Inverse folding.
């Protein structure tokens, strides 16, 4: 007899898989009770013979029907898949007529299998109709298995609320507890939580281990947040503490509990606060500190959170005022503990961090109750690196070496370099410059500024007597470029050889991940290394291995390829990018003041169109982008005459000369432009809906394709060069640099019919993506998680907000910690960028239009609808300064609905104006006090990343330099 296809019979299924899933769901682990009547102990019933003798994973429905009709004991347990099964339990997934036949032949609807489960215990798999059939035949809705669980305990899934309601209507106890005092609410899921709460489930029911439903739900926001909002007691404790102390606590759940008023410093039986419990999570630590957590709270053994912590959280705690001099009940400080902790990966970095702090008395001199200093403990335990750090710090006491500027961001680096701990110093340098290249990447990495680059370089130069450092590498890179002026890849290989980053001999064993570049573990961490060998520009071995070997249950089809890229091709983008930044830092403009900008070049767009001179005024740019290396400017321009034509070209930014035409004059137009991080490719959104990528060195088209059914509206590239983000109609797509689609974000939250994306904004650390549509501002994690819909326009919103208003109303702080947005209630709201928790609401007299953070992150500049500029102090949350447009100077200027743009050095900002004497103008102001520096003609403005140029757009593109 053949098997019935799925379309004809529900019972044509893999019985093994079904049985296994039931066993897992029911927690079937106990042995078969002695009283169970197994078919193995006597004559087998016809039903058990079919089940136990079948060889195919699919059961023959006809054979099952025949076995039922033959009679026999249909309550005999069948030995299958290592467990004892009641025939009716196995029939639950079949057609209802088979169930009815079995019942008619004597199958007991309240019979129990080896685990004590009745057919109704398995009903969650098969919905309301089968449940109704069993109940109509006398099934007990409160039957208990050997663990004391009722059918209601075991129901979850998309069909669950209907089945649960049916059980409740027939007398099921919604608060029934099993032997461990679990209630159905303890096992709530996203599908069942609302129903359970609406029908009287006990919010605070406690198991025999004092776990409430909320204790179990803290990892699942969709379950925990409804419990919190329904009034669950947030203070009830189990052996580990209250729900706020729970392991793997979801950030959104923590925020919800704090918003509900739970004590941020609530202690458990061990005296631990939530900050103690979550001291390994930078994200949770940030939330707790933002809500006033006591960073110096001591537990029952006298430990503060700083005593057992990773380096990222340690930085957060120190920045928040953690007291390094606190001693526990054994007289030890956090420095002692860093030396003691045998498994601490961060022991060396923690020691350097603690030693870098300016304290009245040196930590290395503190003795514990046994009379030991941290140095003596490190020596006793054989912690050589830590002992060396402590010895150097002790020797340097009172003799502050001139090892570079007193930049607080490089304090740890200087400690490591003083001790000539080259490996740890290299990791710390990469943490500062390229956080993604080190394991447990920092959440508080500073903004990479020219000053930071110079401080890092000086620290390396001083420690190595001029052998290592970024400026040393820049000199070698420039020599490599001179040797290969027209071949970037050859220049990178030449540089690699000069600094000793190539392995001397081919690898003996095949390694699909590694290339001929040295890995982290293959570097020479000593002064015998080649000149410029350190700091390295690669990615830590641990990061590569984590990427190449997905964890249990994870799947990644391209992980090996991605890992290979980190060990090889990434260098060809990273090194030119890094050296360009170093060159800018080492050679800043002599005077970058924008008080009196000088026009240097005016792009001759008419030459590309080869049109008659009298048509020149009909040509204008409408999309402009400057390359990250400040060498190129891409301009898409078009005519506005009847025979509409457009073109896209690359120009030399430093000379104003035409370099190459990418799109010849035709009707195809580039609407949005974005350079890759290494300036080697240009992405464009075309007016036919396609995306296109060009090689900027050769001017050749690399790829053109239809990326979105409704076209693409915005493009932004990540700073690390690994991702490109495009906004379409209700979606954001994430691409590889070569145009391979990684992920699609669907912007359904807050909008019935999501409109086109108007703006995309990446946080400086690349972890969050802000999306502005016609009606919402949405905050996403770049891994694909919606964090928060921060702003939403409704039909009642003031008319000053149109489809483009939200595009300028969002900004990230330079450290990526905060996200600021305008809101339709005439306010600006400040959010925790990682969690979406609201920090503060800044009330405005008039609707805000645009906003921007100053470079130090201490001030938020807001422009409102009434021509006012306001400086908000983010320490006091008060307005420090309010500026108005001087109508005398600007001849009746009004603000246009465009962004506030800061110069790369943060010293100048630009506000677009509409003036009576000009079609458009740019108001340049000094950031520190808002003083006007200049007014330039133009509708939009961009600063070059090196701050040497700015570009304005009117009927052409003008290139300006500082005075």
């Amino acid at each position: 007899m053949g098997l019935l296809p799925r379309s004809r019979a529900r019972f044509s299924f893999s019985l093994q898989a079904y049985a296994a899933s039931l066993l897992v769901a029911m927690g079937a682990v106990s042995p078969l009770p002695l009283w169970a009547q197994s078919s193995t102990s006597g004559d087998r019933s016809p039903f058990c013979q079919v089940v136990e003798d079948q060889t195919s994973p699919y059961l023959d429905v006809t054979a099952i029907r025949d076995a039922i009709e033959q009679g026999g004991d249909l309550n005999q347990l069948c030995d299958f898949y290592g467990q004892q099964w009641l025939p009716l339990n196995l029939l639950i997934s079949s057609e209802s007529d088979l169930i009815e036949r079995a019942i008619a032949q004597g199958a007991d609807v309240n019979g129990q299998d080896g685990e004590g489960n009745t057919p109704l215990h398995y009903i969650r798999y098969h919905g309301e109709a089968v449940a109704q059939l069993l109940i109509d035949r006398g099934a007990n809705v409160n039957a208990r298995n050997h663990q004391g669980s009722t059918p209601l305990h075991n129901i979850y899934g998309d069909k669950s609320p209907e089945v649960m309601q049916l059980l409740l209507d027939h007398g099921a106890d919604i608060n029934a507890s099993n032997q461990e005092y679990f209630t159905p609410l303890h096992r709530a899921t996203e599908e069942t939580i609302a129903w359970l709460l609406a029908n009287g489930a006990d919010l605070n029911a406690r198991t025999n281990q004092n776990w409430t439903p909320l204790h179990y739900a803290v990892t699942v926001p969709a379950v925990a947040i409804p419990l919190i909002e329904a009034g669950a007691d947030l203070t009830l404790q189990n052996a580990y503490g209250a729900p706020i102390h729970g392991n793997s606590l979801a950030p959104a759940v923590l925020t919800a509990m704090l918003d509900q008023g739970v004590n941020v410093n609530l202690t458990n039986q061990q005296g631990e606060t939530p900050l103690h419990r979550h001291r390994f999570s930078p994200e949770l630590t940030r939330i707790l500190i933002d809500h006033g957590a006591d960073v110096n709270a001591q537990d029952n053994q006298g430990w503060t959170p700083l005593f057992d912590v990773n380096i990222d959280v340690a930085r957060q705690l120190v920045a928040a005022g953690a007291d390094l001099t606190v001693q526990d009940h054994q007289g030890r400080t956090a420095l002692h503990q860093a030396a003691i902790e045998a498994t601490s990966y961060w022991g060396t970095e923690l020691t350097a961090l603690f030693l870098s702090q300016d304290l009245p008395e040196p930590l290395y001199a503190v003795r514990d109750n046994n009379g030991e200093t941290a140095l003596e403990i490190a020596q006793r335990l054989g912690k050589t690196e830590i002992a060396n750090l402590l010895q150097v710090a002790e020797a340097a006491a009172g003799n502050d070496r001139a090892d570079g500027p007193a930049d607080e961001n490089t304090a740890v680096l200087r400690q490591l370099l003083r001790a000539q701990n080259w490996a740890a110093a290299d990791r710390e340098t990469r943490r500062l410059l390229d956080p993604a290249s080190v394991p447990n990447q920092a959440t508080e990495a500073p903004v990479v500024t020219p000053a930071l680059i110079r401080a890092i370089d000086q620290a390396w130069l001083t420690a190595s007597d001029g052998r290592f450092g970024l400026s040393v590498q820049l000199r070698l890179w420039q020599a490599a470029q001179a040797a290969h002026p027209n071949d970037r890849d050859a220049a990178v290989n030449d540089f690699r050889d000069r600094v000793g980053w190539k392995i001397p001999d081919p690898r003996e064993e095949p390694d699909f991940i590694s290339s001929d570049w040295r890995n982290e573990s293959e570097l020479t961490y000593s002064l015998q290394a080649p000149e410029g060998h350190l700091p390295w520009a690669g990615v830590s071995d641990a990061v590569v291995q984590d990427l190449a070997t997905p964890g249990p249950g994870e799947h990644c089809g391209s992980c090996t390829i991605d890992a290979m890229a980190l060990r090889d091709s990434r260098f060809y983008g990273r090194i030119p990018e890094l050296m360009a930044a170093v060159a800018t830092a080492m050679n800043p403009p002599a005077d970058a003041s924008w008080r009196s900008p000088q026009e240097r070049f005016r792009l001759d767009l008419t030459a590309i169109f080869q049109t008659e001179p009298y048509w020149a005024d009909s040509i204008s740019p409408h999309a402009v982008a400057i390359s990250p290396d400040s060498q190129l400017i891409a301009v898409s321009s078009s005519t506005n005459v009847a025979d509409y034509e457009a073109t896209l070209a690359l120009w030399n930014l430093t000379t104003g000369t035409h370099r190459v035409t990418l799109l010849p004059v035709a009707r195809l137009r580039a609407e949005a432009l974005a350079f890759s991080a290494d300036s080697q490719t240009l992405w464009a959104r075309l007016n036919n809906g396609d995306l296109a990528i060009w090689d900027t060195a050769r001017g050749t088209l690399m790829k053109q394709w239809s990326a979105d059914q409704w076209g693409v509206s915005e493009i932004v590239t990540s700073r690390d060069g690994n991702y490109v983000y495009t906004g379409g109609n209700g979606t954001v797509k994430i691409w590889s640099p070569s145009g391979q689609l990684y992920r699609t974000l669907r912007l359904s939250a807050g909008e019935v019919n999501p409109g086109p994306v108007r703006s995309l904004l990446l946080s400086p650390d690349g972890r969050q993506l802000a999306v502005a549509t016609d009606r919402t501002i949405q905050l996403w994690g770049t891994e694909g998680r919606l964090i928060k819909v921060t702003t939403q326009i409704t039909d009642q919103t003031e008319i000053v907000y149109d489809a483009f208003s939200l595009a300028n109303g969002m900004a990230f702080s330079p450290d990526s910690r905060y996200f600021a947005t305008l809101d339709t209630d005439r306010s600006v709201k400040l959010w925790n960028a990682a969690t979406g928790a609201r920090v503060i609401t800044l009330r405005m007299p008039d609707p805000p239009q645009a906003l921007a953070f100053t470079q130090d992150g201490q001030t938020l500049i807001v422009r409102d609808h009434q021509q006012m500029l306001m400086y908000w102090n983010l320490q006091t949350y008060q307005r420090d300064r309010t500026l108005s447009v001087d109508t005398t100077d600007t001849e009746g200027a009004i603000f246009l609905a465009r962004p506030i743009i800061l110069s790369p050095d943060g010293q100048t900002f630009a506000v677009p104006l509409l003036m009576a004497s000009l079609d458009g103008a740019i108001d340049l102001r000094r950031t520190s006090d808002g003083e006007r520096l200049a007014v330039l003609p133009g509708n939009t403005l961009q600063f070059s990343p090196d701050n040497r140029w700015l570009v304005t757009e009117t009927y052409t593109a003008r290139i300006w330099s500082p005075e």
